[in-house]
Amino acid sequence: MTAVDTNILVRIITNDDRRQAARAATFLRAQDRVLIAKTVILELEWVLRSTYRLLPPTISAALRRLVAMPNADFEDAESITRGLASYDRGVDFADSLHLASARAARQFATFDSALRRRARRLAIGNVVEP
User: Fold this and answer.
1) Same structural domain for residues 93 and 65?
2) Cβ 86 vs Cβ 122: under 8 Å
3) Which of 8, 19, 43, 112 has its C-alpha lying 20 to 30 A from 91's C-alpha?
4) CB burial readout 120-129, b (16+ within 10 A) else e
5) Coil vs helix vs strand at 23
6) Does the residue 25 lie in any domain?
7) Do 92 and 117 touch, CB atoms closer than 8 A?
8) Considering 28, 44, 75, which residue would you say is the last residue of a domain?
9) Which of left, alpha, beta for 128 (phi over 0: left; psi -120 to 50: alpha)?
C-alpha cells in the first residue's frame, strides 16, 4: 500500500499541470491499494477552496469521487463520509470533519458560536461553549 500526499490529488482534480496530472492518474491506477489520510482530505478541501476558489458543491463532488475510488483506503472513512454529509448541508468542512471525528465524545466544545448554532439547527452533534 502507498500513501499519497495532497498534491497528487490536487493534480488529478484540477488538472492544472497536465503532465503531473497524467503521472498522478497513471500512478494511482497502477497501485494495488492507496492510503489517503484524513489530514490529506482536510488539506485537500482547504487547497481547493482557498487556492483554486472552487465552490463547496464542486469540492464535495470531487471528494465523493475520491471516496468511491475502488483501490483507495481512507483513514477513518466513516468520519470523512459523515463530514461530507454535514459539509453538503452548509457546515465548514473542517468543522464537519471535527464533529464527525468526535462522534464518540459526549460533547464537542468550541468558542465558535456560529458552529454551535448551526450544529444545533442541523442536529449534527452536541456542540457546547466551554
Assistant:
1) no
2) yes
3) 8
4) eeeebbebee
5) helix
6) yes
7) no
8) 75
9) beta
One domain, residues 66 and 94:
no
Rounded Cα–Cα distance for residues 71 and 23 (Å):
17
Alpha carbons 94 and 44: distance in angstroms, whole number: 11
Count structural domains, the chain: 2
Q: What pLDDT, on the 0 to 100 scale, is given for residue 105?
A: 86
Let me know whether 37 and 63 are in one domain.
yes
Q: What is the DSSP letter of 76?
A: T
**What is the amino acid identity at position 30?**
A
Give residue 105's domain range: 89-130
pLDDT in tens, the chain (130 residues): 999 999 999 999 999 999 999 999 999 999 999 999 999 999 999 999 999 999 999 999 999 999 999 999 999 999 999 999 999 999 999 999 999 998 888 888 888 888 888 888 888 878 888 8
Residue 68: Cβ-neighbour burial (10 angstroms; 0-12, 13-18, 19+): exposed
Q: What is the pLDDT of residue 45?
A: 97
CA gap 124, 9 in Å, rounded: 28
pTM exceeds cut of 0.85: yes
